[in-house]
């Protein structure tokens, strides 16, 4: 089994299509398919902040649910959109407002379709993926070794939001511990969530959120090749959104 793990898209559909092209996928009907049978895996945060969250939902739903040609795990932004579509009270901020604005431009029929698509995508996907064929775990914000195999509320919070301390930076971002430095496992942990300017390998972990929506790049990590491939972002660069681990 050969997989292409794709970092946080955040509504950047043009960059996603460019990445598939660079990875050697062909358009079969209306979805990208690799001639060698590689399996794309979306690492969460499909929507929010970018220009085409609805288009990304449509494509990922078609690939994952209808064609069974890809896999997906949710991110924190996915969780928030899921709760919004369920009618729960959520604050339309931190990017959700852009997806909601797109959604409200749709016809009533299309709104119902997108709502159904996303709820089904979210509810039928695992919190994280264990792929034994390539000795990897794919989790949106990562996962500690002792949590693997567990789906408790504590693990869900870690996988969606990272190793948060409960404190916040001055700009409102949550303070997160650098859990990857303590990872000693033999399996790859591939994750995103925290924007970095370059794919970040620490021990046997790989952060592939290279901040496409903040103007840097959209990145894929290929296994078993252990290779990263990126395409440049079309969005304006926002330097302060990138995390430094100095």
Automatic annotation (TrEMBL):
Family matches, as Gene3D superfamilies: 3.60.21.10
Protein name (record): Bis(5'-nucleosyl)-tetraphosphatase PrpE
Range of residues in the leader sequence: none
Lineage: Bacteria, Bacillati, Bacillota, Bacilli, Bacillales
GO cellular component, one term: cytoplasm
Superkingdom of this protein's organism: Bacteria
Pfam family, one: Metallophos
Domain Calcineurin-like phosphoesterase residues, every copy: 1-196
Any one Gene Ontology molecular-function term assigned to this protein's record: phosphatase activity
């Amino acid at each position: 089994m050969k997989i292409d793990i794709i970092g946080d898209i955040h509504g950047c559909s043009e960059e996603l299509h460019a990445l598939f092209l660079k990875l050697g996928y062909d358009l079969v009907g209306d979805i990208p398919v690799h001639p060698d049978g590689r399996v794309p895996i979306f690492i969460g945060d499909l929507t929010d902040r970018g220009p085409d969250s609805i288009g990304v939902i449509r494509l990922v739903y078609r690939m994952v649910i209808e064609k069974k040609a890809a896999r997906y795990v949710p991110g924190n932004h996915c969780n928030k959109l899921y709760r919004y579509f369920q009618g729960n009270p959520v604050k339309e901020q931190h990017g959700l407002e852009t997806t909601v604005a797109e959604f409200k431009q749709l016809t009533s029929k299309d709104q119902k379709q997108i709502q159904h698509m996303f709820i089904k995508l979210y509810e039928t996907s695992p919190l994280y993926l264990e792929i034994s064929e390539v000795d990897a775990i794919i989790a949106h914000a990562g996962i500690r070794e002792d949590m693997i195999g567990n789906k408790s509320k504590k693990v869900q919070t870690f996988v969606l939001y990272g190793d948060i301390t409960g404190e916040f930076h001055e700009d409102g971002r949550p303070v997160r511990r650098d859990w990857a430095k303590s990872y000693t496992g033999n399996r790859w942990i591939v994750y995103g969530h925290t924007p970095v300017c370059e794919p970040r390998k620490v021990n046997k972990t790989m952060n592939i959120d290279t901040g496409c929506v903040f103007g840097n790049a959209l990145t894929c990590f290929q296994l078993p090749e252990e290779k990263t491939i990126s395409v440049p972002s079309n969005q304006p660069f926002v330097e302060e959104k990138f995390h430094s681990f100095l």
